[in-house]
Design goal:
about 120 residues, mainly alpha, Serine Threonine Protein Phosphatase 5, Tetratricopeptide repeat, about 85% helix, flat
Length: about 120
């Protein structure tokens, strides 16, 4: 059993990426592939962990007008029963994309559920 725990610890150590390495990776992606390269990184992270609110906020610092990230963030906040935050997120998204029907719909559904 000790042997298995040692292997697990070694595997975890090998998989660990320091914060500095992560910053360097994002910087490289932005230089090599531009904003969309970094956004692709965040989209992948969000797809793997759709309730990690921090990932959405980090993505929005790179591309604040990304309508899909705003929409997905609002949806994640609703799943967490954070209705006030979800409403604010949808409203911010509509400032960038007032024509987006899906955002209007999610905002309406959230307002209905919230009251």
């Amino acid at each position: 059993m000790g042997h298995t725990e040692k292997e697990l610890a070694e595997s975890q150590s090998q998989l660990h990426i320091s914060q500095t390495e992560l910053v360097q990776l994002k910087s490289y992606l932005q230089q090599a592939q531009g904003v969309e390269g970094v956004m692709s990184y965040y989209r992948s992270g969000i797809a793997s962990n759709p309730d990690n609110i921090q990932l959405y906020h980090q993505a929005l610092t790179i591309k604040p007008d990304d309508e899909q990230i705003h929409l997905q963030l609002g949806n994640a906040l609703v799943r967490q029963n954070r209705f006030d935050d979800a409403i604010a997120t949808y409203q911010t998204a509509l400032q960038f994309h007032p024509e987006n029907f899906e955002i209007h719909l999610e905002l309406a559904k959230t307002l209905e559920e919230w009251h």
